[in-house]
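FIELD: query
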Amino acid sequence: MIVLLSLAGHAKAQDVSPAAPIYLTINCTESGSLIQEVASGNSVTYQINPSIGWEIHTITYNGDDIFSQLQNNRYTTPPITANSVLSVVFAKSDAPIETPLIVGRWKLITNNGQIATHVTYNSDGTFRYTSVDEPDYEEQGSYKVENNKLYEMFSDEDEWVMAEIITLNSTILTLRDLDDDGVTYAGEPYSYQREDMTDINTPLSDNIKVYASQKSIIIKGALPNTPIRVYSTFGQLVNNSNVTSDITSISLSQPGIYLVKIDNKTYKVGL
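FIELD: result
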């Protein structure tokens, strides 16, 4: 675009065309890429979440290894002033697969306090619904959890039914159904209570203390090398580590409510 400016009675042409756009290309393994337009000088933060059983194998930015810069699988680019490439390669993890928080048997409680329906989410990605009022009722299918959404496909259907996960912790699963677009709500929230609570309520040690300090979760009194798993309220594993000393500190960048599972007991902590 050319604009004519009048300066002391003389006309002068000035080029005020917008600067060429800057693009950030995100490569995930060899299956494809995502190209995102970025305003010049801006930084972009990405949360990189491998699927269950997978891990981040390599991550580079413009060819440079940035694995050590990851913070809880989050990476923030430097100010972007030219076309750039963020590449992530995932690999199968050799570590034992942590059982998702949703796995187990849940009961749907009606407004009058009655148990209406049971649902069991199995670790192999299958589910089973049964009814208290109708003993012959049974529905089965497959499920998956991605971000804050629960996807269910019943055995006699070929499309996913979606629900937003409002709460998922050691005792409560609260859902709200979504329309086919995955955005619009369909109905009001409803909640399940967990029935298989034995492993969660068994104390590991009366001496263990779990509390928050600034942006960290502090674990005191657990035995060395005891596994620690930290989950968001959506059931997403955000930290997988072990006790290193009498006082172990786990830094988290995002405030919120977290569930800390130490061996066979779960603690709820707010940052």
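FIELD: remark
Residues 1-18, 197-205 have pLDDT under 50 and may be disordered.
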